[in-house]
Structure formats: C-alpha cells, structure tokens
Amino acid sequence: MADEGAVLLDELRAAIGRYVVLPSEEALTAVTLWVAASHIQPALQHAPRLAVVGPTKGCGKSRVLDVLHETVYQPMMTVNTSPAVVFRVIGKNPPTLLVDEADTIFGPKAGEKEDLRGLLNAGHQRNRPAWRISGPEHKPTAFPTFAMAALAGIGDLPDTIMDRAVVIRMQKRKPGERITPFRSRYSVPELNALRDRLTAWLSPLRGTAARLVPRMPVEDRAADTWEPLVIVADLAGGHWPARARAACLAMTRHEVVQDEQTTLKTRLLRDIRRIFEQEGNKEALRTQDLLAALITDTESPWPEYGTKGMNAYHLANLMRDFDISPANYRFENGKQAKAYMRNRFLDVWARYCPEPSQEAPVPVCPARGTPPTTPAGSIPIGPPGGTAGPKRAR
C-alpha cells in the first residue's frame, strides 16, 4: 500500500497523544518521528537525542519514557545502569537508550556518572568511540558510543546535550486535559503492535534511508539532529514531509529563544554572585540594594531591561525558575526588609555558572589515532529552502 507509512505514523501519533499531553502539536509530531527513526538507527549518521525536560515533578516525563519503551527499537532503560554495561551493549546494532532522572547525571554532583555523560555526548555521531583499558592484558579498546537516546529530567540538561537533542518541554496538565491511563494489560499490547508494524515497514528501507539526503529547513547541528526524523517523514510520504519540516522549523526557533533567555539568566546569576562578593558575601542583601547594584553596571543589560530598567518584579520573575525568591529578613540595625539570601544561590551557582575551579577538568589530548570529539556548534535557523538566519553564539 503506497501510503502505508503515512497511515502507520498517523496511528502512532494518535496513540502517543492518548497517553501523554505534549506541549504542542509540533512536539507530538517530533516524538512520533523520533520513535520511528529508532527503527532505522543502523542506517543513520547521527543519533538524535530526545530531551524530555520539565520544571518540576509531575509533568509527564516518565510517562513519555513508558510509551517510548513500548514503541522504540530495542529499548534499554538506564535509570541506574552502570556506564560499563552501556559501553558493552552498544555495538553495530545498538539499543535505544532511555534515561530517566537524567538531571542526576550532570552537574557538580555527577561523580561516578561522568563516563555515562561522556558516552551520551559522543554517541550523537557515528565513529566517535570511547577508548578504555580493558581485558586481562589491559589493552586500549575502542567501545562504540553511537546510539539514539531519550533523556528525561527536571530542568534543562547541559548545552552539550540540548544542542544534540529534539527538546520536548513538558508542563503539568491543565484541569481539563485528559489522557488514557497507562495500564500494562492493554497499553503494552497496543503499543507493541505499533512497534512491530514500524519494524516491518522500516527495516527493509534502511538501505534507502542511508542514501537519502533530504532537504532541510535548518543547518549545521540542528540539521544533523532533525535529519533522521525528516528521512522517516519522506519515506512515509503524504502530509508527513511537510509536517516534519514545519515541526523542525518551529521547534528549533523556539529553542533559540529559550537559549537566549537561559543565557540572560546565567548572566544575571553571575552578576548577583559578583555583587555578593563585593559586599563581603553577606548573609543577605536587600532587594533594593541588589537592584541598585545591577542597574548601575552600564555594561550589563539590566539598566535597559524592560521599559525603565530592571525592577523587583523582573528580578523575581527571572529567579523563579531557579526556585529563588525574596523573603523578609531582619538586618543588624533591627530593620526588616525584603531580601535575597546568599545560601539560596549556592546550589544554583554551582550548577549553572560554576567558578573555573568547580568546572569539570579539561580532558587530556587523546592518544594518536583517537578520533577527536565534535565541538559544540551553533544552530542557524532559516526558512525552508532559503538562506539561514543569524547563528546563535555559544
């Protein structure tokens, strides 16, 4: 049947939409195509990440992974999996990694999970092995890292992951939004049937997929990430090629805006830390004193923020995502005022703008013959078939 792929993707999209409320129609399209792309993974040059992030618990992130587990190609859930295990299961026919609580892998407290973090970074592109000393003879051994991965966690993941990901920003359901409860006795058979049909449709097309060079509405790393999804859409035909490219353009543009906001908030955190240091790292600073110090910095964006410069409302709004807010504080002179407590910033500073001494050590140069890792890049955005727009700087 000529439209078999389009009909199957329509059914998969409807099934996913029954079990989870995704933030937009474009996001639902993206998840559908990402699931399907996992079934042609051996033919791909890039393994796009799916970053399922939300500001708090209860946004449906884990339910997305439940649905993915029953529909993707060879799923491997890696909530607490040892990096050594993951290194050894990825080969020429890799599984699709599903990582819950991914926020615990990154940041200053990552600890022993640093190897898994490196694997997730390197595995976006084919032929980026991880070298380890292995075996009784302690020989240098190259372990493949190439595998598609979905990562669910609270808050944004590091730029090295987000730049390689289709980003799904989950939100809590509104009171009127309904979903079908996920129950193993009927949900799993339904989704597994769709998975088996995807395998039957796409497995014979892997050779064709490997040769396709689709027209992309974006460039560079965004094109690398979205190309597998667009390939699946082109294989399906019907309305899917146009729908996939529209979703690609809308979601990458949205991430450019999000990235600009994140950059602004990180700048604010750094400036607040500098002001606390200039004030001798006091326990608290009055909101008005903090604002005065921010807007007197003429080299910063704060004097012109909003219409008349940054005010208390702006400051509280920008800090809300970090769960930081002003509170009543009694100062040494006995007067009480709204103030920001320094100890509320400590964890956030360590996570989002660590001092150079807190950042991860720079890796040593690889041995001769070891492939270099791909540096982080920019995502230029442009209209379909047109010239790309301005690139976002890192």
Number of beta strands:
10
Largest sheet: 5 strands, parallel
The CA-CA distance between the termini, in Å, is 47 Å
Main β-sheet, spatial strand arrangement? 2-3-6-1-7
Percent of residues in beta strands? 5-15%
Give the mean pLDDT: 85
Task: Looking at this protein, list some descriptive labels.
394 residues, 5-stranded parallel sheet, 3-stranded antiparallel sheet, 13 helices, 10 strands, 41% helix, globular
Describe this structure in words.
- There is one protein chain.
- This protein has a five-stranded parallel beta sheet.
- The longest helix has 39 residues, at 240-278.
- The protein is built from 13 helices and ten strands.
- With 394 residues, it is α/β, with parallel strands linked by helices.
- The protein starts with a helix and ends in a 42-residue tail after the last helix.
